[in-house]
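Morning, I've got a small favour to ask if you have a moment. I owe you a coffee for this, so here goes:

…
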Amino acid sequence: MFCFSALVFGQSGSRIITGTVVDQNNEPLIGAGVVVEGQSTIGTITDVSGNYSLTVPEDAKQLRYSYIGMVDQLIDIEGRTVINVTLTEDATVLEGVVVTALGIKRAEKAVTYNVQKLDEKVFVTREANLVNSLSGKIAGVQINETAAGAGSETKVVMRGAKSISGNNNALYVLDGIPLPTLSTTKPGDSWSIYSGSGLSGDGMSMLNSEDIADMSALVGASAAALYGYKAANGILMLTSRTGEEGFHVSYSNNTTFSSPLML
């Protein structure tokens, strides 16, 4: 007689939910937050096309969709794997609200870390590197400008250096998307831009200050919780401008003269 025994192992199930988040004009919302309700550590943000993909546990019941200036929506999952959402504008004026990670909005007085928000007035005096405009405007932040003019590199150190040999530069987040560590270097006879670790500089001079609406500095370990070790040195959150109704024309010019030290 032969006896066969079978063991059935249970595995905690999960499923992938995909979809698109758009506004009232059916335009994709970039960087909209999608978080499992009641589990704020499980979430994601939408890409440049407004699409998202999120792995959620089987016991998840609802997803919360949020975007700055929009009304949050709480959607029941109900076994669906594709959920498309349209967010509407929030008529309430947002005062004292800051964006942390994954597009999450929180009252400035409710966060447990230092948040300093700067609006577009900071960039009235245009710099080749927009980070240079922050010099002397954020407490506890040291702006180290290594060069002047186009292509200049600037290091942002929050509350002192934290590593002897590593990179102490803050993490830059544009519309909820962490930017890689970029450095302008000169290999041979041509300029190039590449990513890497431990490099000085940030490559922020590639961004046009005219395109930035506001900037927030998040200082402290708690502020970096959702962005991981790369944000251990603090975060500079940048929000880009959005379209405005009507016809507007603006012009700005920046001219720099310099003399070479050696030819």
